[in-house]
Design a protein that fits this description.
The chain is about 45% helix and about 10% strand. It is mostly helical and about 475 residues long.
Length: about 475
Amino acid sequence: MSKVATRFAPSPTGALHIGGVRTALFNWLYSKNQKGNFHLRIEDTDKERSKDEHKYQIIKSLKWIGIEHDGDEYIQSTKINDHVNVADELLKNGHAYKCYCSSEEIEEQKNRARQKKLPYIYNRKWRNLTETDAPKNIKPVIRFKSRIKGTSILKDLVQGNVEIDNNTIEDFIILRNDRTPTYNLSATVDDHQMNMTHIIRGDDHKINTFKQMQIYVAMGWVVPQFAHIPLIHTIEGKKLSKRDNASTLDDYSKIGIMPSALRNYLLRLGWSYNDKEIFTLDESIKLFNLEGIGKSPSKLDMSRILSMNEHYIKTIDENELYNQLVIYCELYKEKIKSDKEEKIKTSLLFLKNKAKTLEDIYNNAKYLIFDKINFNQDDLKLIDDKAKKIIFEFNKNVDVLKILNKETLEPIVNNLIKVHETNFKGVGQPLRISLTGSKFGPGIYDIIISLGKEEVQKRLGNKVLT
């Protein structure tokens, strides 16, 4: 048997869609599980909409989530001549024919179908006519001569046997009248030339598969095995599209979802292995199989993605978490200076508390990342005369401390609560605002200890607060 080969074949007409990422992931995992190869094919034959920037974004996105293809990218537009040659061969062998129907004739057929509320199928007018009957002013398209009688069975590795009547598959166009190939021809020729053994893709491609299988048979090629994955739906149960929020990888990266967490989530989106939820990369490769893919659509659930990300934030090695934070800040916020590394690393234990994203950690850590405090103006209004006295007295008490820890700080806070007849919030909130610029953030003792005595006194003496 041939070595397993799978592929992911996106069009570079926009950012990589989350459904496409899952398809790529399943292909990649299956090939790695089978000790095979995974290939990336860029289907860039739509010259008007295909852009290099989208191609680079697709490659970068796949790399970000941990999917790397074997060999060079396969660029479809460089193989057009091969596609055209196959169309000509099908024409010569009687498996295709020239169709001279005008666009008006085709539109009329479509209108009739609409009136009868039937799906449009080309009426095969030119299937048995000869070129001597052809009009001189029309450039023909080339149509594949589909089977008319009997049924075809697709032995789908996910859906099981799928049977359809052959007469429901029209004589589809394989070459347009400008001699450019259509999707079904190009994809089939490419998959054959790339020696693909397994085609794993969304189940919206099922009808294309029946068409492509006929091309394989007509050319005498070995037909690969097909697996059709149910589509991803929104939480409301509608088909997820590129227009939906959080539909591309960049949408997740920007809010600080980590690649390993999103990969784990997408693995479990429509695939299961016993009751296991969390998979390392090695486990994903070792355990992945096509039998575990469900037959029903999956719903993209942002709350589950955040929950998965929170789990990874809590359990990941803190050096690795810091590295992820650095990369995130460099991409979307401000670069973290190297002299801040030690303070942030030693503070991660509390900075990551209740954080669901890297953005949450960044927001918690801003008081450490930046030397200058940016005060939230609404929070600053909470610093009244009583709060200013508390800040001043706390600073005076800290001045005599040799060690800053909870044991030395707690008596000072408790005494201020008693003297000023307030509660913990009455002391903690003004201190937090004065040290971080916001009433929200980590616990006050954690903030003070992480900053150190010198920085605490400097910030509490800020002229804005006096």
